[in-house]
Amino acid sequence: MSPSSKTDSYRITGLHNLLVGQPLPAFASDHSDPTMIQGVGWLLPAGPYTARQIVVGCAPLLETVLHNLGPDDEGQLTAREMLLDNLASNLNLGTRESSLEIPLKDPGRKEMAEQAVKIGKSIVTYAREAKDVAFDPNYVIRSPCEGHLLKPQVTQLMFGPRSLRHLMQIYNEYLHQMVLLRDALLPFENYDEVVIPIVPGPGKRHLGMRFTETQRMSFIAELMTKSITQASVFKLAQSLLVPSMSTDNAYGFQYKHGLILPDALIGASSLRLFRYIPVVLDETVTDVKLAYELEDYYSAPLLDIGPAKHSVEKGDPIGIAIDTQQHAVKDCSLSLSSATPDLGSRRLQLRIIHKNGTSSSTDVGQIARGWRYSYKVSQAEEESVIDHFSSTASLHTAVDVLSQSGQGGLVTAKEGGIHVIQASSQIEILALLGQIYPDNIIMLEKGASLKDVEEAGQSMPGEPRFVLQLLDS
């Protein structure tokens, strides 16, 4: 992804140079002011932070503990190594000291588990690199136990002759801040780039990352007891970056420091993660909630798919229906719909112009829904070159199907059957996900066999099956 000097817009280069909003200046906040001042205490000053900067801002807590523990014995693990190893164990999954346990019972929770491990490793790396920061050797904080377990050797260190009564509470605060940061970043694929606004307030619940505790507890409870929803992941992201915004009927948002969209909308394969993009869609307002055009897609009008290019008989090769000269994408962009009167809640459209002059406009929220509900068919382990179905199928082009956009409904096939829709680019696949009723859409991933599709999705009598096929360019 990169800004475009030609259009002064931001391009997602891996997705047909999709234009997305106005690029923000490069984030360069260095937070050179100390976060701990002798006689004043510790806090994260108000302002925007990256994850790394928050870790550096919390480092004085650790340094205060290490200073008071005194010099290390030669030839033994240093106190720094032991305390940071304990942090690594707290942030990892499956250890005795893990601060989070995620049942791996469904794809959504498996994705969150992978996220937790990845983010935890990054935080530990940042923590190991954060040295030579100002601290207060006399700092004291009341930080009740948050349940973050210690390794046996760390227990001996923190409650042994080298320690002081108050040091465990400082270390506890340090561990808790790191755990809160890890969990707050779970929704974001590019968590290391997200710009987090810190707004200190009265009382301990606004100290550092503690403002995230309430929503974190709600999210973790759902994560541990049932399949997580897109709404809950979105709520966690929103509560970190723009807590005052309503999440009703929303799937993304613009805030002061950038744009948050489902990661799949930029061509990624994530199921429920979001991506931070350093752009704004509307420079006249700070916060914009991106709302679904169809709050309840079940009640949307249904449009019958247009005539097929041709019918493919049982056992015959599917062939190719696309004319690369006429059906190729000429331009594509994301833009806010002008039809929404409330500037604080807008609709975002994916607009595509093809070389043959046809254009389409698709609600980005519905694209996100279509992605989540679609069936993905990947290449089978054994090589297969099957290019036909065992039953009759109808062949369509993405251009023809997308030309039905703007009619105020979702595409289906009232007569049922298998409908293969061929596209020349991934951006068309995304648009199709937002145009077709998301009940039985099958995405044929590169290298997959058409035969494999017949075992995917639903096979109820009379129900249509839509197969999205991206052709090699």
Please give a structural write-up.
- With 473 residues, this protein is of the alpha/beta class.
- It folds into two domains: 2-289, no CATH class; 298-470, no CATH class.
- The chain contains twelve helices and 25 strands.
- The protein has helices spanning 51-69, 79-91, 107-129, 152-158, 167-184, 213-225, 230-241, 324-327, 364-373, 398-402, 426-435, 450-453, and strands spanning 2-4, 9-12, 18-20, 22-23, 36-37, 41-42, 47-49, 196-198, 250-255, 258-262, 274-277, 279-280, 288-291, 302-304, 310-312, 329-336, 345-346, 348-354, 359-363, 375-377, 393-397, 410-412, 418-423, 441-444, 465-470.
- The strands form seven sheets. It has a six-stranded mixed beta sheet. It has a six-stranded mixed beta sheet with strand order 15-21-23-25-24-20.
- α2 (79-91) runs antiparallel to α3.
- The chain is elongated.
- The chain starts with a strand and ends with a strand.
Give, in spatial order, the strands making up the sheet with the most strands.
1-2-3-16-18-19
Uncertain runs = 381-386
Q: Mean pLDDT, as a whole number?
A: 89
Largest sheet: 6 strands, mixed
How many domains comprise the coordinates? 2
Structural class designation = alpha/beta
Gyration radius, in Å: 26 Å
Helix proportion of residues, in percent? 25-40%
End-to-end gap: 21 Å
How many runs of DSSP E, i.e. beta strands? Answer: 25
**Percent of residues in β-strands:** 15-25%
- Described by the principal axes of the CA atoms, the overall outline is elongated
